[in-house]
Amino acid sequence: MGTLQAATQVQDQSVGFVVRLLAVVVSLVVLLPWMLDRLVVYSADPFERIPSMM
Prior knowledge:
This protein is an all-alpha fold. Helix content is 87%, strand content 0%.
């Protein structure tokens, strides 16, 4: 982080924030398809079990 700040001569706290924000965005882009798949399976399962409960 210090090298980036020295190279750009920006000595601000926002540089670290931008890097963390970028890491979160990249993580979401990579993991979002998997998270949505798990959510759909988790949500659909109870509705599929309703007929067996009656």
